[in-house]
Amino acid sequence: MDSDLLHSPAVGLAEEEEADMNDWKLPLAFMKKRHSEKIEGSKALAQSWRMKDRMKTVSVALVLCLNVGVDPPDVVKTSPCARLECWIDPLSMSPQKALETIGANLQKQYENWQPRARYKQSLDPTVDEVKKLCTSLRRNAKEERVLFHYNGHGVPRPTVNGEIWVFNKNYTQYIPLSIYDLQTWMGSPSIFVYDCSNAGIIVKSFKQFALQREQELEVAAINPSHPLAQMPLPPSMKNCIQLAACEASELLPMNPDLPADLFTSCLTTPIKIALRWFCMQKSAKLVPGVTLDLIEKIPGRLNDRRTPLGELNWIFTAITDTIAWNVLPRDLFQKLFRQDLLVASLFRNFLLAERIMRSYNCTPVSSPRLPPTYMHAMWQAWDLAVDICLSQLPTIIEEGTAFRHSPFFAEQLTAFQVWLTMGVENRNPPEQLPIVLQVLLSQVHRLRALDLLGRFLDLGPWAVSLALSVGIFPYVLKLLQSSARELRPLLVFIWAKILAVDSSCQADLVKDNGHKYFLSVLADNYMPVSIRHRHQGGRILFKYSCWEACLQGNLIANCLEQLSDPHPLLRQWVAICLGRIWQNFDPARWCGVRDSAHEKLYTLLSDPIPEVRCAAVFALGTFVGNSAERTDHSTTIDHNVAMMLAQLINDGSPVVRKELVVALSHLVVQYESNFCTVALQFIEEEKNYSVPSPANTAEPGNLTPVRDSPAIPRLRSVNSYTNIRTATTARNLNKSLQNLNLNEEGGPAAFSPGNLSTSSSASSTLGSPDNDEYILSFETIDKMRRVSSYSSLNSLIGVSFNSVYTQIWRVLLHLAADPFPEVSDLAMKVLNSIAYKATMNARPQRILDSGSLTQSAPASPTSKGTHIHQAGGSPPMPSTSSSSLTNDVPKPPTREQPATRPPYTPTLGGQAPHSHQFTRTRKMFDKGPEQAAEDSDEPGGHRNYISPALQTGLCDWSAKYFAQPVMKIPEEHDLESQVRLERQWRFLRNARVRRQSRSIIQRGISRLDDQIFINRNPGVPSVVKFHPFNTCIAVADKDSICFWDWEKGERLDYFYNGNPRYTRITSMEYLNGHDCSLLLTATDDGALRIWKNFADQKNPEMVTAWQGLSDMLPTTRGQPSISTHKDLCVFVCVFVRQDIPTGADSCVTSLSCDSQRSLIVAGLGDGSVRVFDRRMGPNECRVMTYREHGAWVVKAHLQKETDGHIISVSVNGDVRFFEPRMPESINVLQTVKGLTALDIHPQANLFACGSMNQFIAVYNANGDVISNIKYYDGFMGQRIGAISCLAFHPHWPHLAVGSNDYYMSIYSAEKRLR
């Protein structure tokens, strides 16, 4: 971190202004997504875009009742009148030929929209002919849709009784045909088109008859004896669609310039009628030279988008689709415009019919009914497109000039781009989205359309769902067949977004061999785009289940080549992809073995990005978790992988450690019998040793007093700690079970059969898993921790390469004591599962002949020769004793527990404890098939133990990255966002605090004894910490933290820190104090925890936790120390670990560093003060040692100024000032005896001392006492208790004091300072 980013004492206004500006530049710690959100996938959205019942219109009945030459009696036609039927003048030829020609033309017009349907014409039919036609089509169509087109221009209008008209055989009479009968013959699903006057009557009658049928079906279903039930059940008409030319009271237009079948023309030849209608409008005069005759000569074909006619058809499709999508409800749009190609075409053309026919006072009707669309603004875009096209016609036809393509699509893409860039967050969807769909068909605009589509999908899952509902999926699926390299990054991004929201699309990709596209992208190192898209390609491949095909595409080799890529997201997804491909797929595992995949993944275990390390652990975990039979070679590989994974035991990120537990659980499943043997041996060793309880080792010097329980309130619940029991239960594996044989990198030492650590960490006595507690109890584990020798473990000859299993067992024990509860709970499940299985089902027999073990080649877990016998006696029950450093201090009650708790069931365990036969597997405790029956009554019989499904949610959580916006400007950078405004307010508050406190300190502090706050803390204060800018102060007791508002005198919060009962909080620090504050707590077992959402209305949540120091032994001194460890462990800025040996035999009691974070001053328990320069190597970094103190150093402080001094004080009260360049102290002040606490104000030249003799002395820089505090304020104020802790405010001249009488008070230079 640059020096100008660090706070230094203000010496002038310019520097203070600079400090205020630096608030904006300071980095925020622990604010990544892994800290702020739960590690789980996004909630799946209900997908309605995929049509479950996609249909096809397979049969079409064309019923024409024209009776050419004879007008119906109830319609008086004008003269001249509309005559054209299917663009044929029926009077231009003989009636019969005209009828046949019209029928043929109508069929051709429909075939343009559905060429594969089966067409049947019925020209001037009788009732029987219609019945025969309809029943025949329904029979052949089965469950598919049938279309019934009725033209009634030559018969009377429909009747109010629900009848249409046909003819008798001699054409001498009009015969009514009931719609009820038509429904019966047509069945469902069907679509009906009525082109006749008063067609709305048919729609109403149809609905009435359909309702009548539904009622009949209900009656027949309720009462089987009803006469209706004895008759054939009528078909339901629910899935029927109707299109009618006009309302019930309207006649068809008779304008001679229009065709007589205007409605049919709109439905089947929309471009032709739209152009004719356009020319008939007054606005057409603005396009000179365009006539109706010229329109007939417009060049091109409808299906060729490069021609004028084809382009108009393309634009028309885009516009009508857009209008429907913007106006119709989503479900109705899906049903009418995406379910059936012919229905979609008819309804698109129906929108045109509504526009044209309404201009002639005729309103087309549909069922289901559509909202009015004839005034939609997109029709103006259609008129403009027609205008531009027609204006070119004269020169194209007469002079042969080239056709200029319409700017329609480019303009609509621009409108879509404006929506993306200029719109606000909460707004209506862009109306151009269906047009973007159509543009994908054009090579000219495709690249731009894909780019804009990707930006739209990046807005979030709602945008992806919207695009899928429009129908984007088949288009982008088809584009995967494109070989254009410039489309690759865009298509990969779009597919990553789609699969992140709807993983069901995988099946379609596999079906169309789409995975090959992404394999080629992953292997393309020369793709001219950012590396981002390659990791998206890896993310898409991770979703597949078609691993055989991926293997053939060299996926593993391609992934391994990308492991060293500089982009962390690509490294992460490549590792996840590898983990998924060989998960339960043995051929892929062996392919990875041949390519040394596991060894190449080892490099990622030390990656600086936690997500990458986590992905590598996941990949290695599934690598060893494959369920196939093992050979000696594969067993050796498993052991090597396991010991490499074990090096992450002290990884700083809990997500990595959680994944480590899951990875090791895979190994436990594979080598279950070996781990059962190790577990039993640890249990047996524990029984043979008697170790005194630490509860009896507390020294009289311990200043922690007995709590009086009536003063103890309820603690608040903690979200991330909902499973924390009171300090003695639940996660009862001791923190000191960390006595692993670790090298200085924090991982296990190089392993060999004889390299077993002499320290222990292990198992416990056993109880039934149905008890409320785990099998492994705290007391037993604590006892086993202090067992000095495990030499007899070498007798575990039945487990070849036993050091691997014992080391991994210790790693799991260590993880079971993890400060992060989710990690410890997972490890406890694994341990208890094995312990329960090992003790409840068998007793392994030791093999005495240890000389038979060949340790050079590890044996397969399937080896025979393991001898077992049943040991007598029942398993011991959990101990009920308790042990604690403060055994006589009652623990404050934690959050209320639920009244009932489900019985414990080992959720880990993939194998039932009894197999049906003895096989060469790794299950050595099976009793055999003959005992299966009698075992069925045992409480643990046939229970699953270690579940292969045990997982952390890493993959789904990682996939959630693609479902969220990745191109959006972060809120903190958006000047108008709520987050930005809140930060601005906080930084203004910080500036005010700095300014006001500086003015007070500059005036000089002559006394500091005005008590501005006092209150009784729930526990004895051990550490106090002022928030640097707000009025909050944190007060820690042994294992809980209380927050007070010292200005209002209110208690804000009180919650349990989660540390084991034999440890205590020794230090606290605010992180991001200038902005979004977090609280870091350190305990004397070396664990660090970081909390958020404290001191407000939310529940406190643990952000992260890790073991900063291992091998920690609790100190018995009352002075809270930073650590009691012989080495320094320095966490700088982003908490990068650096181990520095102190070169002393005593513990470190105090730490301080300079503003550059380069020099570190450590006070030690032997009285020495040591200075380290962390820029130098571990062996040369100790640059100075002062040995002038004769007792325990209470505080060692390095002033932040450039020429700052080192100030140190011991329990004897001697305060010494050192110049870092001088070998001896330059000043000595003698303060109070029995000193227990000291703090130095960072701004004012003050320091305060607290004594066990119940007083506080405040000194200035000259060593003069400016205040001496012995009594609390008020009449007859009582004497203050022995001082347990004190701390100055970073800015204000305030001193917080905690004492052993539970009181916490704050003293200031002035009353009501603020």
TrEMBL record:
Enumerate the spans annotated as Raptor N-terminal CASPase-like domain. Answer: 54-207
Disordered: region residues: 691-710, 748-768, 851-947
**Name of one Pfam family that matches:** HEAT
Kindly list the biological process annotations in GO that this record carries. cellular response to amino acid stimulus; cellular response to starvation; positive regulation of cell growth; regulation of autophagy; TORC1 signaling
Q: Which intervals carry biased composition (Low complexity)?
A: 752-768
Which residue ranges have biased composition labelled Polar residues?
Answer: 851-865
SUPFAM superfamilies given for it? ARM repeat, WD40 repeat-like
Any single GO molecular-function term of the entry would be: protein-macromolecule adaptor activity
Do the record's keywords include Cell membrane?
A: no
**Name assigned to this protein:** Regulatory associated protein of MTOR complex 1
The record lists the organism as Oreochromis niloticus
